[in-house]
Specification:
By secondary structure, the chain is of the alpha/beta class. The chain has two domains: about 1-150, 3-Layer(aba) Sandwich (Rossmann fold); about 155-235, Rossmann fold. It is about 55% helix and about 15% strand. The protein contains 14 helices and seven strands. The chain has helices at about 20-25, 35-50, 60-65, 80-85, 90-100, 110-115, 135-140, 155-165, 170-180, 185-190, 195-210, 215-225, 225-235, 240-245, and strands at about 1-5, 30-35, 55-60, 75, 100-105, 120-125, 145-150. A five-stranded parallel β-sheet has the order 3-2-4-5-6. A two-stranded parallel sheet has the order 1-7. Strand 5, helix 6 and strand 6 (about 120-125) form a beta-alpha-beta unit. Helix 9 (about 170-180) crosses helix 11 (about 195-210) and helix 9 packs across helix 12. The longest helix is centred in the last third of the chain and has 15 residues, at about 195-210. The protein is elongated and about 65 Å long.
């Protein structure tokens, strides 16, 4: 699978993939396996704009299996896809051999789902590019995938991590703040009046929950985003524009 930057110019089309081919009328059967009715309705509306798809909607992958249909593309929610990959690998293989699989997720789920996205043919972010679903399916059928350009920057990844801060406990959040000051475990333990063993566990938990590769990466993030951390922890979705103006 090839990943290309999500641009609006002709350069966004992979080499050898002409824009005319993307917009050519090719009847396709598209199945949605999405348990969120609002997301399903949005995708169906976007798909219908092309006027060339036969659309079937299911709430569970087992319903699709029982239908015995073979769609050209399956749009599946990220949680259903994860369960399919982990619990029914043979079903996944059978479906992936017959149809292109396009995973539907929100931007804040990207880091959590990174380990399974490589097993899909394409991705659509319901909060960013769902309106371009017809183009994304065409690209997926050609073996390509668009990655929204904001995810290719440091600030884009920071944006996702800031939305994940509410999952930290109070002590984990305070540990992250102190990592941003470049402190070692012993000093953090002294400041929080906890044992060094507990702090070591807290650091591991922070790295896991926010998908950092190591404590240095966590510390750099905390230092870089220090003005925004408290706001983000108490906010459902902080504004990147607001944070940029602070800097």
């Amino acid at each position: 699978m090839h990943v290309h930057n999500d641009q609006t110019t002709r350069k966004s089309f992979p080499q050898g993939l002409d824009e005319t081919r993307l917009t050519a009328v090719t009847p396709m059967h598209v199945c949605l396996v999405v348990d969120d009715d609002a997301v399903a309705d949005h995708l169906v509306s976007a798909l219908e704009k092309a006027g060339r798809h036969r659309i079937s909607v299911f709430h569970d992958i087992s319903d699709l299996q029982q239908s015995n249909i073979t769609p050209d593309a399956i749009l599946i929610g990220v949680q259903q896809f994860a369960a399919l990959r982990e619990n029914e690998p043979m079903v996944y293989l059978r479906l992936s051999r017959r149809s292109r699989i396009v995973v539907v997720l929100s931007s804040r789920e990207l880091l959590d789902a990174a380990h399974i996205l490589a097993f899909a043919d394409a991705w659509v972010f319901q909060d960013i590019n769902a309106d371009r679903i017809n183009e994304l399916i065409d690209l997926g059928l050609e073996g390509h995938c668009l990655m929204p350009k904001q995810f290719l920057s440091r600030l884009g990844v920071d944006e996702i991590r800031l939305t994940l801060l509410p999952r930290l406990s109070d002590v984990e959040f305070r540990t992250l703040l102190l990592l941003g000051e470049g402190l070692n475990n012993r000093t953090i333990a002294d400041q929080l009046e906890l044992s060094e063993a507990v702090i070591k566990s807290m650091v591991r938990s922070v790295l896991s929950k926010l998908h950092f590769r190591n404590r240095t990466e966590a510390g750099v993030f905390a230092a870089r985003q220090q003005p925004s951390l408290e706001i983000a922890r108490n906010s459902e979705r902080p504004s990147l524009a607001a944070r940029s103006s602070e800097g």
